[in-house]
UniProtKB/TrEMBL annotation:
Protein name: LOB domain-containing protein
Family: Belongs to the LOB domain-containing protein family.
Pfam families linked: LOB (PF03195)
InterPro entries reported in the protein's UniProt record: LOB
Biological source species: Liquidambar formosana (Formosan gum)
PANTHER family linked: LOB DOMAIN-CONTAINING PROTEIN 26, LOB DOMAIN-CONTAINING PROTEIN 4-RELATED
Length: 161
């Protein structure tokens, strides 16, 4: 590259931008803040080493990752991107708790509705080859079977309701 079209890295480092500059494809002169942030956290020498050790097809993604990590570290010097990951994990846990709570509420209300319905004669039970009711063995074998009473009990014990 010529001096007039130096990449952001070479401009920042006040040097000529060689034709085969490892920084040029990933730190264009149009975005000098990107290199400044990454340089502040990793240093130009480390960035260069990391990029040169990677195959060309992975360098753009590595530069993006370094930029994300550096930006996160500048915003939060203690936790960096780990702070973001922790926040997202907490949101997942909260969403999972909300799902369990909602399932408990649904089971509780379904159990209430079952109690309000007039008692009907249960359908004739079909026995399996071991003499057990077929509904019993099929629900015991099906791992996706969830006992609605279990969710109703959890809902009653939940501090959220």
């Amino acid at each position: 590259m010529s001096n007039s079209t130096r990449c952001a890295a070479c401009k920042s480092l006040r040097r000529k931008c060689p034709q085969d500059c490892v920084f040029a494809p990933y730190f264009p002169s149009s975005n000098p803040q990107r290199f400044a942030c990454v340089h502040r956290i990793f240093g130009a020498s480390n960035i260069s080493k990391m990029l040169q050790q990677l195959p060309v097809n992975l360098r753009a993604e590595a530069a993006d990752c370094m930029c994300f990590e550096a930006t996160s570290r500048v915003r939060d010097p203690v936790y960096g991107c780990v702070g973001i990951i922790s926040q997202l994990q907490q949101q997942i846990i909260e969403a999972q708790c909300q799902i369990v709570k909602t399932q408990g509420e649904i089971a509780y209300h379904n159990a209430q509705q079952q109690q309000l319905l007039p008692q009907q004669q249960p359908p004739a039970q079909i026995l399996d080859h071991q003499g057990e009711p077929s509904w019993l063995t099929s629900t015991q074998q099906d791992p996706s079977y969830l006992d609605p009473q279990l969710f109703a009990d959890l809902y009653q014990q939940s501090p959220f309701h």
